[in-house]
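From: lab user (bench 3)
To: helpdesk
Subject: output format question, protein + fe (ii) ion

Hello, I'm new to running complex predictions and I'm not sure whether the block I got back is the full result or only part of it. Here's what I submitted:
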Amino acid sequence: MIDSQIVILLQSQIAAEFSAANFYFNLSSVCNSLNFKGFSHYFLQAGCEEQAHAKKIIEYLFLNEQPVDIRDIQTKEIAMPISIPDVFNSALEAEIEITERINTIMLAAVNLTDFATQNFLMWFIDEQKKAVAEAKFLARRVLDLSDNFAALCDLDHEVGEDEI
Ligand SMILES: [Fe+2]
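Helpdesk reply: Thanks, we reran it on our side. This is the complete output you should expect:
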């Protein structure tokens, strides 16, 4: 039987994943309006990945015969006007925040000696490690290229082709 503390944490993580998805869709829209179609595509994909993460957690709760009740998904605001370096910095901040949330749930699972949930969460721990590294790389790269429009357009194309 899964502990109610874990159920509550996982249920709020579902909302956090959907919130991250919405946030990425908003970043995608910003990139689209700035005419960076590759970055826009990248963030659309990122939003879909967050939705897939939410689905994984929903399935885990169902496996444990727990209900899911999704309400009040609050999406982080984007401060306007926003530049491409701002977009990637806010994506990095979002990934760091998600990592901290996953770590909190893992800590609760460790404290409760809930081995099944620890095992389930390992996928998320690995995923976040990669997501933060990629977000950090892109935030730095975009900042380095921010004064070089042609190079930024090349990166936009590369990222849009999933070549990073
Ligand atoms: Fe996620």
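A quick orientation on your result: The chain has a mean pLDDT of 94. Let us know if anything else is unclear.
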